[in-house]
Amino acid sequence: MPLPKDPSMRVRFAPSPTGHLHLGGARTALFNFLLARHYGGTLVLRIEDTDRERSTQDSIAAILEGLGWLDLSWDEGPFYQTGRFDRYRELAMELLEKGHAYRCDCPPDLLESKRAEAMKQGLPPRYDGRCRDRSVSPDRPHVLRFRTPEKESIVFDDLIRGPLSFDSSVLDDLIIIRSDGGPTYNFAVVVDDVDMKISHVIRGDDHINNTPRQIPIFRALGAPLPDFAHLPMIYGPDRTRLSKRHGATSVMAYRDMGFLPQALVNYLVRLGWSHKDQEIFTREELVHFFDLDHVGSSPSVFNPEKLLWLNAHYIKNTPGADLVPLLKEALPPLPDPLSQSSDPGYWTRLADELKGRSKTLNDLAQLAHPFLDRSRTIDPEARKKVLTLANSTVLEQLSLALRALEDWSGEGLRNVFAQMGESLHMKLGELAQPVRVAITGKTVSPGIFEVLLLAGREISLARLEEALRLSREPVNNGNTHD
Ligand code: GLU
After folding, report:
1. What's the 16 CA to ligand 1 centre distance in angstroms?
2. I need a surface site. Which of 47, 131, 222, 315 has the fewest CB within 10 A?
3. Would strands 101-104 and 300-301 be described as parallel, antiparallel, or unpaired?
């Protein structure tokens, strides 16, 4: 069902700061962000930190960092629930006065024994309403409970799931204010959604059972009901709820693994939403096309391969100059930098040359490292397989011919290899592989002429010599430096 174009649309992202921003949370934030931007509405950021034991400043910082990295901006907030306790108490008192709430002084051990009894009989452990019609003095230790309407069906039309109906008799008279005066989770959420004039509540469907608890509170407060949209779960490849068992779930772990935020955003948006069969979207396209009517109701499966594919796409299509600062972050320190590493133009050239072979920024850094620092290592496997006695002739001949080459250009290099191929009766690939391992330390790299050009004459010749020496060594394993 299409939503009307509505600049008064107000949505919120309301994380509980009990850990990192994880993929599911980031997707919820993204969908809210895109909807707000699509309709020219407002995104509110609300930190749901009422659980003081589990909420931490570090988590708040981590969540804000994650949102910042994904470039998901908000318009109002962050509002902190811990800063609004007076407001929750104020509205709870209003509910009390109107008879929608009541004081309950049932001692915890009494509640506990009733709960145990209900469980024993196989009944749901609900509060039995003992204090509903008692008048409990405010001077006694007590909680405030919400008077849940009895035998009513609570119906709402979920924008993703369609109409849903719950029987209120299965709901408890839930506590809204604890004995210490603090609000409970479901109450604070409703008060905030009312005060922040939220028009659309878009959240993970792990909250779907909270919605029938929250709806009567909206009504009791005399507030209009927002629309609700519960986003389908994200599964791991084994079709169980995505968790650490499936690999990294924190957004920032993906940054550390060398992902671009644009790639992760593009990946996350497709977890549940589609636009025809388009897979790759610019930010502008997402804002333009995004809508809830194309969010499916079945769970999506997290596919790391596809994320990697998208990341490779974004890296390849990012101009080298823009990749340079990211490459610098992904590189380990350069203990013995080569002279070209002080030339900014060289970095851009390197990034442009290597980006097509890099699925992550960490791949890019690995490929770039041999061109930036003397301390490049030769992969032991590559050394064993390629820097062999059998290849020493090629290395020797090429070393000599390249040393004699005055014009260190693509054409000059191509001529040397062509002549060498003829005289040794070898194909370019066969000649190139020992040179590739010599220069980069790896068996995978860009074309051999680009490698030689990027490395430059002096480094290339020194590394060929080193490789020649290694190829003649009888015991041929372990790491080496040039
Ligand atoms: N704080 C809840 C969470 O982090 C979200 C609550 C809501 O969106 O209503 O899961």
Report:
1. 6
2. 222
3. unpaired
Substitution site in 16, 51, 198 for ligand 1 pocket (most atoms within 8 Å of beta carbon): 16
Cα 14 to middle of ligand 1, angstroms: 5
Atom of ligand 1 at shortest range from CA of 12 = 8
Q: What atom of ligand 1 comes closest to residue 13's alpha carbon?
A: 8
**What share of the chain has pLDDT > 90, as a percent?**
89
**Whether pLDDT at 335 is above 70:** yes
Would you say residue 368 lies in a domain?
Answer: no
Largest CA distance in the chain: 105
Q: Look up the pTM and report it.
A: 0.92
Instruction: Tell me how far the alpha carbon of residue 405 lies from the centroid of ligand 1, in angstroms.
Output: 67
Same domain, 89 and 219: yes
Tokens linked to 202: 């878009």
What distance in Å separates the CA atoms of residue 427 and residue 417, rounded to the nearest whole number?
9
User: What's the whole-number mean pLDDT along residues 244-253?
Assistant: 92
**Which residue bears the tokens 């909250």?**
207
The mean pLDDT value for 345-355 works out to 97
In a domain, 89, yes or no: yes
Ligand 1 surroundings by CB, under 6 angstroms: 14-16, 48, 189, 203, 207
Q: Are residues 187 and 50 in the same domain?
A: no
> Alpha-carbon distance 93 to 263, whole Å?
48
Quote the number of domains for the chain: 3
Mean pLDDT of 285-295: 95
Q: Show the domain range for 164.
A: 85-231
User: Catalytic residue positions?
Assistant: 244
Q: Which atom of ligand 1 is nearest to the CA of 202?
A: 8
- Same domain assignment for residues 118 and 212: yes
Domain end, chosen from 231, 262, 277, is at 231
CB 413 within 8 A of CB 449: yes
Task: Assign residue 289 the CATH number of its domain.
Answer: 3.40.50.620
- Chosen domain end from 205, 231, 257: 231
- Cis status, amide bond into 78, omega within 30 of 0: yes
